[in-house]
Specification:
Blueprint: H1 2-21, E1 27-29, H2 32-40, E2 47-50, H3 74-78, E3 84-88, H4 94-102, E4 106-110, H5 116-129, H6 133-156, E5 162-168, E6 174-177, H7 182-189, E7 193-194, E8 202-204, H8 207-213, E9 217-221, H9 222-227, H10 231-235, H11 244-247, E10 251-254, H12 256-260, H13 266-276
Parallel strand pairs: 1-2, 1-3, 3-4, 5-7, 5-9, 9-10
Antiparallel strand pairs: 5-6, 6-8
Helix pairs in contact: 5-6, 6-13
Length: 277
C-alpha cells in the first residue's frame, strides 16, 4: 500500500513537471516589446490578446485588445483564458495579480533595462517565461550579431548631432526626454547626443528649454508628429525658428515601437535613427 502511495506521488510529480516545462498555448502580452519578442521566438500563434501598445508584427493589429487604454482589469485578462500573462515590471497591481492567479492564470513580470546587455537579458527572460530557453539563446545570438553590425556602421559614419526628443499628444501635451530614458539610450547608440543633459526622465516642454537646448534635430514619434499637424505646423511652434533644427527643417519621426522597444529589432532602430540624424 505504501509503495502504491509513493508511486502515485511520483506520477503526480512527473505530471506537474511536464506542465511546468510545456510551452503555454494561450498567452496575453502587455507591451509591444514582449509581443515582438514572443513572435521572434516563433510563438506568435499562441498570442491570444495584446495591449494597445502592441502594433508589430502587422498581424498583431488584428488581435483582440485587453483594454482600450494602458490600464487592464482582472476580468479583462481572465476573459481570454490565457495560460500566462506577460507584463512589464510594475504595470500590473498585486490585487489584479492575485485575482488572475486565483483563476489559475500565471503572471510573469519582465523587467526591461534600456542597454545592450539589458536587451539580451530581456529576450532571455521572455524565453524563460514561456519555456523556450533554447530558442531564446539562438535569438540572443542573432540579435547580438545584428546589433554589432549596426554599431560598426555607426562608428564608421559618425554624426554627433544634438537631438531633442519631444513627446506630443497634440499641442497641449508635450514632454521632453532627458537623461536615463530609453530615448536617451537609443540616441546615443545611433551616434547622436541628447540635446538635454540637465535632468533625468521626462519634463514638460517649454519654449525656453527648446531655445536653450538649440538641437540640430527634433525627434518625434510618428503619432506625435501627426498630432501637431505635421512639418509646417511644427516649424511654427514658438522658438522653433531660433534653433538649428528649425532653421534647417530637421524634424524627423519614427515608429514608436521600433524606436523604444529595445528588443529583437534594436539593430533596425539604431540604423534607421542614425540614417535620419
Amino acid at each position: 500500500m505504501k509503495r502504491y502511495f509513493y508511486l502515485l506521488l511520483f506520477i503526480a510529480g512527473l505530471t506537474l513537471h511536464s506542465k511546468a516545462q510545456a510551452q503555454p498555448k494561450r498567452i496575453v502580452t502587455l507591451n509591444g516589446a514582449l509581443t515582438e519578442t514572443l513572435d521572434a521566438l516563433g510563438l506568435g500563434k499562441s498570442i491570444v490578446a495584446v495591449d494597445v501598445t502592441s502594433t508589430y508584427p502587422a498581424y498583431v493589429n488584428t488581435l483582440p485588445k485587453v483594454s482600450k487604454n494602458r490600464s487592464v482589469s482582472a476580468e479583462g485578462l481572465i476573459s481570454f483564458s490565457p495560460d500566462v500573462v506577460l507584463a512589464p515590471d510594475g504595470s500590473v497591481s498585486k490585487e489584479i495579480e492575485s485575482q488572475i492567479n486565483a483563476a489559475g492564470i500565471k503572471l510573469v513580470r519582465i523587467k526591461q533595462i534600456f542597454t545592450l546587455d539589458g536587451t539580451y537579458q530581456f529576450i532571455k527572460d521572455v524565453a524563460a517565461a514561456v519555456n523556450a530557453t533554447a530558442k531564446g539563446d539562438i535569438l540572443i545570438k542573432q540579435t547580438k550579431d545584428k546589433v554589432a553590425k549596426a554599431l560598426a556602421l555607426v562608428k564608421q559614419q559618425p554624426k554627433n548631432a544634438k537631438v531633442l526628443f519631444i513627446y506630443a499628444r497634440g499641442p497641449g501635451v508635450m514632454m521632453v526626454a532627458g537623461k536615463n530614458t530609453h530615448i536617451d539610450a537609443i540616441i546615443g547608440l545611433a551616434g547622436g547626443k541628447n540635446a538635454v543633459s540637465s535632468f533625468n526622465d521626462f519634463k514638460p516642454y517649454t519654449t525656453e528649454a527648446l531655445v536653450e537646448a538649440n538641437p540640430d534635430v527634433i525627434l518625434m514619434f510618428d503619432f506625435g508628429f501627426s498630432s501637431l499637424g505635421g512639418m509646417d505646423s511644427i516649424l511654427k511652434i514658438p522658438g522653433m525658428a531660433q534653433t538649428n533644427a528649425g532653421k534647417n527643417k530637421r524634424i524627423i519621426q519614427m515608429d514608436a515601437d521600433l524606436l523604444i522597444n529595445f528588443s529583437t529589432r534594436l539593430d533596425q532602430a539604431i540604423l534607421q535613427l542614425h540614417s535620419k540624424i
